[in-house]
Amino acid sequence: DIVMTQSPDSLAVSLGERATINCKSSQSVLYSSNNKSYLGWYQQKPGQPPKLLIHWASNRESGVPDRFSGSGSGTDFTLTISSLQAEDVAVYYCQQYYSTPRTFGQGTKLEIK
Amino acid sequence: QVQLQESGPGLVKPSQTLSLTCTVSGGSIINDNYYWSWIRQHPGKGLEWIGYIYYSGSTYYNPSLKSRVSMSVDTSKNQFSLNLSSVTAADTAVYYCARGDSYGRPFDCWGQGTLVTVSS
Question: Which helix (H) or strand (E) holds B115?
Answer without folding.
Answer: strand B114-118
